[in-house]
Amino acid sequence: MSDRFSAAIGRKVVSRQSAEQLGNVTHLLVDATSRRVVALTVGKGRRARLVDWSRLSGLGPDAAIVDAEDAVREPADEREQAAAQGKLELLGKRAMQETGQELGEIDDVTFDPDTGKLEMLLIGSTEQPASSLLGAGSYAVILSADTFGA
Predict the structure, then answer these.
(1) Cα–Cα distances in angstroms (integers) from residue 9 to residues 19, 25, 86, 87, 99, in the given order
(2) For a Cys-Cys bond, which of 74, 91, 93, 110 suits 119, CB 3.0-4.6 Å?
């Protein structure tokens, strides 16, 4: 069963150990090479922290569960800091083909909540397979020209 980025944002992040709410999901950090969610951003601004996907016990319709409070960590480098600030968020990002043709904005992304593997990028009324994702940065998401609309 698939999940959507738009539905995951705002979910509570809860420690299984203490049953305490640690914050809410504000962004999902994607590795374009593996086409997977690699971390969740918890909180906003200077207080934003990350939870590595590998530290999740589960991602359900109501909450993301982590084993313990130490699963939430500070951003480790500039890329993670940019992600924590929402600069690498796919939702609302300009989508372009590798040829430079603008396709619109990423309206949503479907993914497997068990593995974090991206499934589809939704651009307007077009569903684009995640396999077309070539890169994602602060300016745009780049998609393969060979697969768009296929």
Answers:
(1) 20, 5, 12, 15, 31
(2) 110
